[in-house]
Amino acid sequence: MAPLKFYADLRSQPCRAVYLFMKCCNIPFELVKVDLFTGEQLQETFTKIHSVQRVPVIDDNGFILGESGAIFRYLSRKYSVPDHWYPKDLQEQSKIDEYLNWHHSSIRQPCMMTFRHEFINTVRGRPVKEEERQVYQLQLLNSLRHLDEFYLKDTPFLNRNDISVADFQCLSELMQLEAINDESMYMSNPKLGAWSKRVKEAAGPHLQVCMDEGVNMMKSVYDTMKKSKL
Predict the structure, then answer these.
(1) What is the per-residue pLDDT across 62-74, written as a single tens digit (0 to 9) for each?
(2) Residue 39 belongs to what domain range?
(3) Model pTM?
(4) Do residues 138 and 223 share a domain?
(5) Can you tell me the distance from the alpha carbon of 185 to that of 165, in angstroms, rounded to the nearest whole number?
(6) Which residues contact 78 (CB under 8 A, 6 or more apart)?
């Protein structure tokens, strides 16, 4: 049986989270790059694979699945991965699901919009809509406070004493801020800074691939455009 195909662009936050999870769990896969910046996800070739036109997507010998949360659950159940990533215990599993559901509106949305307002407008030579950017920054700061006071209240990882898919999902999103030199939003918080260090250490050498092909690539483009305006 052929290894599953993983359609992704490591400049995408959920793609990075799934990539790190599969690498850390030694799940064999073939990475099929889908260039989001040139709109490959909108072209017929990819649309035939997954009509929603988003990544990540996996093709497990004809079984097609999108959405990072669903992919985490599927791979955790199919492969013999260490239980801490997505526990079999119902209550422990539900605490991870609680974060994954909260993540979309509370971390992903304001973080993504903060990035978009700053990065895309800068790269396209347009003025940054500072008032809108500040709205999303405030939302993100409120969510980061909740990470500190709730999800990391008594544990070194999100709701747990060991790392889970929730930590990769969260960190991969917050890493996007590094591309626009805005990582201090979370790194300046002692608890979040320590947590991010633990998660990055757990990702090991695989994190560098995500940095090189994702965050650092975007940061280079962003810094070049910022300097050109000086």
Answers:
(1) 999 999 999 999 9
(2) 4-85
(3) 0.96
(4) yes
(5) 22
(6) 60
